Amino acid sequence: MKWETLKEKIYYWDGAWLDIYVLNASREDWKKWIEYVNNKFELSFYHGENRSEEKQISFEAVSDLWDGKTEFTNDATIKLDKMSIKCNFFDDAEIENFFDPGEVESIEDHNKLINYMIEMSRIIGKTVIMTPENRPELVYISANNGETKINLY
Q1: pLDDT tens-digit profile of 29-61?
Q2: Roughly how many angstroms between the first and final C-alpha of the chain, as a whole number?
């Protein structure tokens, strides 16, 4: 696929983010994803209860929010070279990451995102999709067990 087509159809800037989802996730899926990003990427985790920036995501802190043990929210930013993938831990039933499509500036950046999605899919054992912001029904890219599919609308 040509970079110009990807930029025009997927990575254009219209003021909205792009989302990366694992739908119908379990806490075990979250644990696998957290272990993957903690071990593979430079990241920052805002631990809401401690009001601190940490270099590893705390599954316990995230679970405490889901379980209602705390009201303090957490978020993470994963560095994928010059791109930033963000996560807010809203719901334990879906893993949602989001990023600024303007940070995807080349076919190499696109390939890094695809590799991230493929690895997530392999580690979790579920399909990973990229969609427009808050539109999981409109799948631009899907990765499942090493295979990817691109839909240009």
Answers
A1: 999 999 999 999 999 999 888 888 999 999 999
A2: 14
